[in-house]
User: Fold 4-hydroxy-tetrahydrodipicolinate reductase from Robiginitalea myxolifaciens.
Amino acid sequence: MKIGLFGYGKMGQLLDKLATEQGDEIVARIDGPDSDPPLDQMDVAIDFSLPESAFDNISLCLKAGVPVVSGTTGWLDRYEEAVALCGETGGALLYASNFSLGVNLFFALNEQLARLMQNAPGYAVHLEETHHIHKLDAPSGTAITLAEGVVENSDYPAWKPEEAPGLGLPIRSIREGEVPGTHVVSWSSPVDRIDITHTAHNREGFARGALFAASWLVGKQGVFSMKDVLNLR
Ligand SMILES: NC(=O)C1=CN([C@@H]2O[C@H](COP(=O)(O)OP(=O)(O)OC[C@H]3O[C@@H](n4cnc5c(N)ncnc54)[C@H](OP(=O)(O)O)[C@@H]3O)[C@@H](O)[C@H]2O)C=CC1
Ligand SMILES: O=C(O)C1=N[C@H](C(=O)O)C[C@H](O)C1
Assistant:
């Protein structure tokens, strides 16, 4: 597979290493605004860049007919625009807030737990995510997906950052050290608490999942998620 990497930071460099090891070819490493990347050489593009650059990179790829895997978080205010563009161009787009197999199983577990808790009155849900100090966005994309999974399967109308006023499922964001990513969903009652936790030990699961998604996406048309890739629908 000939891969164009948009974003050559922590994730981009790891993707380069793992892709090369498995016999793929990296045909471009784009690490800043670039209006003329070698799109004609790419079978697929993978974007792990910045919240403010993700949409432009995706748009460039879709307009050139290059399938694009998007891992950048914090740009979803433009997701519907990207979906529309994917439809207009007949292209292929796959966004995931988290590509690791473990987190995608955790998403399914979280939804199932939220459904079970509908028969258990007296519990309130709370979400906590911890990441490294370099992370630009909060709450994490993964925490937002988890919160949406609860909202869709419970009476909670919406989520909110813990410090924001008003009602809604609170998400606490902690930034410390070099933590790769830890997510905890807690259901508390006056007498007990149920916690489910996912802890990433490093970034390898994210990168391997993104490479798997990229090979799955080549030759397809439409908008997809990891639920499609992993058959978790
Ligand atoms: N979905 C998932 O599974 C995962 C998602 N992520 C998300 O991926 C994103 C990247 O994470 P990470 O690699 O840790 O971040 P880094 O900050 O290490 O890397 C981002 C890179 O993008 C570069 N960049 C800046 N502008 C552009 C541009 N216009 N086009 C392409 N690249 C650009 C930055 O350069 P410079 O520093 O010079 O600005 C930087 O090198 C984040 O949004 C993060 O939340 C991370 C891990 C897993
Ligand atoms: O920025 C990160 O590092 C991560 N970002 C993603 C997110 O926002 O959920 C995925 C993972 O948790 C690592």
About this structure: The radius of gyration is 18 Å. The pocket of NDP (ligand 1) is lined by residues 6-12, 30-33, 48-50, 53, 57, 71-74, 96-99, 206 (CB under 6 Å).
